[in-house]
Amino acid sequence: MDVPCHRRSRVPATLLALCCAWLPLSAIAADRPEDFAAQAALALEGEGPWYRLDVPMTVHLAAAHGDLRDLRIFDADGQAQAYHLGSGREQYRETRQETAVARFPLYAPRNSQDVPEVRIRRGEGGTLVEVAPQGRQEPEAQQLRGWLLDGSAVQDSLQQLVLDWDEQEGEGFQQFSIEASDDLQHWRAWGTGQVARLAFADERILQAEVELPGLKARYLRLLWLEPRQAPNLRSATLISVRGDRQAAPLNWSEPLVAGRTGNGELIWELPMALPVERVRVEPIERGTLAPVRLSGRAEVSQPWRGLVSGVLYHLPEQGVERLNDELTLPGLAVRQLSMRVDPRGGGLSGEPRLRVALPASQVIFLARGKPPYTLAVGNPRLQDQSLPLSTLRPGQATGSTDFAVARVDGSVRFSSAGQPPDGAAAAGGIEAKRLGLWVVLLSGVGLLVMMSLKMLRKPAEEV
Prior knowledge:
Layout: H1 5-8, H2 10-29, E1 38-45, E2 50-54, H3 57-62, E3 72-74, E4 83-87, E5 91-100, E6 102-109, E7 118-122, E8 128-133, E9 142-150, E10 157-165, E11 172-181, E12 188-200, E13 203-207, E14 209-215, E15 219-226, E16 233-246, E17 250-252, E18 256-257, E19 259-260, E20 266-275, E21 278-282, E22 288-297, E23 305-317, E24 320-324, E25 326-328, E26 333-341, E27 353-359, E28 361-366, E29 373-377, H4 389-392, E30 404-408, E31 413-414, H5 423-457
Helix pairs in contact: 2-5
């Protein structure tokens, strides 16, 4: 028996009802500035549309999550902006330097396959003064096999070698072995190099650079392989690279007041579990010598976990004030910090306060709405909406700092009692609406299921 058309039409009707029930839920889930406990106005400097913002410590402490997953940026119409959230990283900077080095010819008998034997005389600091063949040889029987380069004045890693040789004798390709030494006795192979000078019609091609492995060495020995006769070098230049590492930037908090336990331990409370990397105790008065042990825990219900032990001091020594008021931590997330002071050193005087340092956070956002823009944090129900930087700005080079600058303009504004501006009632109202919509949705689904079951129970002849 064919099923009437009106029976089959109930399926799309059911789907339509479900979609209609989901629409208001999506609208309620959209982020709004008034749903956040703390807001800060942003000032933009330079041409966008991408802006870089260094998140201040006051914003970090006002967030609902230590990883800033609840951070959002809104335009004047309350529209959320796309953003990338990253943390400060250790920076590495390279400095290139070119150094013209002294060169000494290496001669060997024309038919000899051995490494040229030389007599070497060095001056102060290892600088080569003289390199001469061993024994007496007739000039006609000698062949220029290579060159010894004195790089003792270069202290950094060797990245490249640049050679210049006489044009009359150096046409075509030339291949040579490269060896390195620090004492002129023990040599280690650095591979082979190749240079070339080619001429064709009016075109000239010059390849004078040779890549080196990026290691340090005081001396280099170049022995020509093809051809066996080395050219007369007019100059040799070593290009070295010095790498400087800069520690990742940190954000420091304002001084936190300590509480004391019955056994004399100092306790500091943070607003949430935060990845503390360094602490600073102040003041450390002159004459202080205090061995300390710092412990932490992410929740009050957890046991204390030892983080670091050290000595805080402020002592005069030969007219110089020696001060150590900081301790480096492993970066674990902690909400409470406890310090036990060894009284044998004299302890800490007064009421010590604590500053905590967190890894600096940086936000890059795409300003595509109407200014002014607002930074908002403090909504515990939100999840991370950060985009990868390669998605936010396609084609952007990794590590690039080519962004306009945004900064927090003024102080962070907090709602009453640390809640969103409408207070607990507003938050409760939002949750009540969401709950009501879920009730409506589930009730509708239940009603449709009951109708379907009732129709299936009817005899076929009634259908």
